[in-house]
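#random but structural
TW: two for the price of one
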Amino acid sequence: MERFFGGNPALVLLRLAIISLIVGMLLAAFGFSPFEIVESIQRLANYIYNMGFRAIEEFGRYFLLGAVLVFPIWLISRVLKLMTGSGSARRDADANLPPPPRH
């Protein structure tokens, strides 16, 4: 237990209580309240959460915009390669031919 707390647990808890009291008095002197701090942390978390999903939504929109053009072009090129015979079978056949003579 001491290893987790970094010392005697009772003394660590007493130190934390004293530091909390001092920090609380300073924050109260500046006009902060615990509820305002918790509320601002919640707003920050909500903002980050919404920002993350907005980024995912924009990524999806960009992906779909590109896919509308890229996938049909790719599909047409694949079909044309299969129809003209310039696919991998054609390359394999060319690979078995002897090299042209040098002059």
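TW: number two ↓
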Amino acid sequence: MCQHITRRIAVENSPGTAFQSAVDRYVFDKKLPLLVLDALKRIEIAQRVDISHGLGKQHKFAYLQPELFHESFSSKLEGIWVACEVWDFGTLSTLFDGMSEADQDVTSTQHNISNGRIFASWLLSLNYLRNLCAHHSRLWNRNIVDLSELPPVAQVPSLAAFRNDPRRQAHPDTPA
């Protein structure tokens, strides 16, 4: 009974709004994370292969070579191929963020982004998006905490529409 009254009040207090539109939005927000997770799964697997292969080409025990990482990330790691297989996407994103810029550039170039630091920001944002989906958080119309940098338009022309249209850009979370 109470649910029916709440629905009726919400619909009556929002001119031009029908309860069905709220249901439709809810169903859409339930389906969207599944589509995003499917795409992110492919990105995660590609990064697992690219990072372990790229570092492994330099040294099969790359995790013992502190010169391959930023100073702040130079602690010893487990076997790089084994580690990359068992780490989650967040750990892989953090590992990529800790790699030298030259190694980041090599890996990111395989995905048509020449600047590894820009690619690192994308991986961190994709990890945030993945966590939202995996933990059943609302995805539609959500403000994003960590905004990725956009690569130059000449490099990825398909992203040009996002440069000058605020409606197509992510909005940072604002404190409540």
